[in-house]
Specification:
There is one protein chain. This protein is an alpha/beta fold. The chain is 44% helix and 17% strand. The chain is built from three helices and three strands, in the order αβαββα. Strands 1-2-3 form a three-stranded parallel beta sheet, sandwiched between helices. α2 links the parallel β1 and β2 (33-37).
């Protein structure tokens, strides 16, 4: 929330990546899209997406950006 205000970001256009549910809850309450990084296997999560590492999270974000700008 502080970063959104400080830098004038748009929450619906922003992403939060975390490895715990507690990382994602505040982001979702602000309307941000979320990605849960899991350790070995996908788990039940509130995240909009799940993946095993940051490289794949970046791929999800970039793919989403290409889809919304088309």
């Amino acid at each position: 929330e502080k970063a959104i205000a400080k830098y004038g970001l748009s929450a619906p256009d922003s992403w939060m990546i975390g490895d715990q549910e507690r990382d994602l809850i505040p982001a979702q309450s602000l309307g941000m899209k979320t990605i849960r990084i899991y350790d070995q296997h996908p788990v039940e999560s509130i995240g909009d997406y799940q993946c095993p590492n940051l490289a794949e999270a970046a791929s999800i974000i970039l793919s989403s950006e290409r889809t919304t700008k088309s």
